[in-house]
């Protein structure tokens, strides 16, 4: 069966049932597929005085078309937020929370990374929660405008320079703190000092994780993303070269905001009815004393384009010499059962006809038996392994451009190499810098037509509402696996109930 084929480019649906390949074309010409609230983006913003000023100036700027300097074919211009999405985005927030940079720096410059990130994230989340309790207006989304110091110092590998460092109080070894989480000490102050070590030392993940239980939607934005020319190096040039990315920033943030306030910018035009896709996300739980401990989550995407995340239990899922993650039969059953019950709730109590489970490794017998038990006799389940491939490159015999996106080499009836990156005729270019790598796609459990599976995978590369681009190189079922896992292990006591995908991105 070995042969080389080209799959047709999946199209997207927009308003009035119109379909095109590029989401930017569809939004510009027809508007979004699913309307959000007619009153527009109801938002709150928190940041320093300078950060809020930069954000309001950016919102004012995207009321009109945004053009890149020296823009080419790769990035269509942004037509303006209301022109693209059909709802207003006022320059006046419902709620504004202004913070003093000097007070914030008392947290940002703490010398120990766990305490520094915990206190900094808490500085923001406590003020957001206070505003929600006390303000009459209730925003649908909160913009967290992060100063550059927060980005610089509140990440896992960050360090504060010695001359700026504030000595941390009550520090301890992370392993000791994790032990206290399981067996508290007799002294309350020891237990309190251990709390920051139960959280991931990443500002964005902590913001998301600490507000999940309240179902608060956030969009974290760096100040330099909003006004890069305000941040210069010693030579007087912007520290971030974003002059040619202004329309892309407007498209990406605009699409993410529209999705988070309840609208669907577009919908896949090629997904078959009654089919859903589940991507498995695993993340090592560094806070756990068990080196095999990991959190598992399932991301379910429906034919409508909606995404829901289901949190599984933390368990010893890291198995084998190769470091692969595998669930027990019971854990696999519970996780997929949650997904199917959620699907039934959205489809008049009818289960999906077909359910494709995407993972990066082959499924072993115990976990596959759990999936089959959860699916029952009414749902056909197919296991698909998708991973990046380094063992094969494909070159065009003539021309400077690489092979076309959608090219696939069928190795046999159950496995193929798919080029989800490559030359795109609509863009008249290849939006990459290196020879594109292929995805290795294998039907490792169940039965399905390999070309149908490849077409689905190619379509799912266009379902990333967090960035408004032609397509990604990885299907959305796996694209955000690491990001979802990081939020889920960012702190203790995260909600078990499923939440829409928009809360994690």
Keywords for this structure?
505 residues; Rossmann fold; 2 domains; 4-stranded parallel sheet; 16 helices
The class by helix and strand makeup works out as alpha/beta
% residues in beta strands? 15-25%
Q: What name is given to the CATH topology of the largest domain? A: Rossmann fold
Q: How many strands?
A: 19
CATH class of the largest domain: Alpha Beta
What topology, given as strand order, has the largest sheet?
Answer: 1-16-17-18-15-14-9-10-11-19
* Annotated CATH homologous superfamily of the largest domain: Response regulator
Q: How many helical stretches?
A: 16
Amount of helix = 25-40%
What is the alpha-carbon Rg in Å? Answer: 24 Å
The count of domains is 2
Low-pLDDT stretches: none
CATH architecture annotation of the largest domain: 3-Layer(aba) Sandwich
General form: globular
* Head-to-tail CA distance between termini: 40 Å
Overall mean confidence score, pLDDT: 87
Task: Report a brief summary of the structure.
By secondary structure, this protein is an alpha/beta fold. It contains 16 helices and 19 strands.
């Amino acid at each position: 069966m070995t042969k080389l084929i080209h799959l047709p480019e999946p199209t997207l649906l927009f308003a009035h049932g119109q379909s095109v390949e590029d989401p930017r074309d569809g939004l510009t010409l027809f508007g979004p597929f699913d309307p959000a609230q007619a009153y527009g983006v109801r938002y709150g913003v928190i940041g320093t005085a300078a950060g809020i000023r930069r954000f309001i100036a950016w919102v004012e700027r995207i009321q009109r078309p945004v053009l890149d300097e020296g823009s080419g074919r790769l990035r269509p211009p942004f037509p303006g937020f209301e022109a693209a999405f059909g709802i207003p985005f006022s320059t006046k927030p419902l709620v504004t929370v202004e913070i003093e940079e000097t007070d914030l720096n008392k947290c940002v410059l703490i010398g120990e990374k766990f305490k520094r990130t915990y206190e900094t994230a808490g500085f923001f989340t406590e003020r957001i929660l206070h505003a929600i309790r006390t303000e009459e207006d209730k925003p649908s989304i909160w913009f967290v405008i992060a100063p550059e110091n927060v980005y610089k110092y509140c990440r896992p590998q960050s360090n504060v320079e010695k001359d700026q460092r504030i000595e941390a109080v009550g520090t301890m070894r992370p392993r000791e703190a994790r032990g206290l989480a399981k067996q508290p000490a007799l002294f309350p102050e020891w237990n309190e000092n251990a709390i920051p070590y139960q959280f991931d030392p990443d500002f964005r993940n902590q913001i998301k994780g600490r507000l999940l239980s309240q179902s608060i939607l956030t969009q974290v934005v760096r100040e330099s993303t909003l006004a890069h020319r305000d941040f210069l190096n010693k030579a007087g040039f912007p520290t971030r070269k974003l002059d040619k990315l202004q329309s892309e920033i407007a498209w990406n943030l605009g699409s993410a905001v529209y999705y988070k306030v309840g609208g669907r910018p577009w919908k896949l035009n090629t997904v078959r009815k009654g089919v859903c896709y589940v991507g498995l996300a695993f993340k090592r739980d560094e806070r756990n004393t068990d080196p095999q401990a990991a959190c598992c989550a399932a991301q379910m995407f429906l034919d409508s384009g909606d995404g829901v995340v289901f949190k599984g239990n933390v368990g010893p899922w890291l198995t084998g010499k190769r470091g692969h993650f595998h669930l027990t039969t019971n854990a696999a059953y519970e996780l997929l059962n949650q997904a199917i019950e959620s699907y039934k709730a959205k489809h008049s109590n009818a289960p999906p006809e077909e359910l494709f489970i995407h993972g990066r490794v082959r499924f072993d017998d115990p976990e596959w038996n759990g999936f089959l038990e959860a699916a029952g006799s009414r749902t056909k389940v197919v296991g698909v392994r998708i991973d990046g491939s380094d063992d094969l490159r494909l070159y065009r015999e003539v021309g400077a451009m690489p092979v076309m996106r959608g090219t696939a080499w069928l190795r046999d009836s159950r496995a193929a190499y798919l080029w989800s990156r490559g030359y795109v005729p609509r863009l008249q270019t290849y939006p990459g810098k290196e020879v594109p790598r292929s995805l290795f796609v294998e039907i490792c459990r169940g039965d399905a037509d390999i070309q149908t599976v490849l077409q689905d995978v190619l379509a799912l590369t266009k379902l990333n509402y967090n960035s408004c681009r032609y397509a990604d190189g990885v299907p959305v079922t796996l694209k955000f696996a690491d990001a979802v896992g990081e939020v889920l292990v960012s702190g203790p006591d995260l909600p078990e109930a499923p939440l829409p995908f928009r809360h994690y991105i």
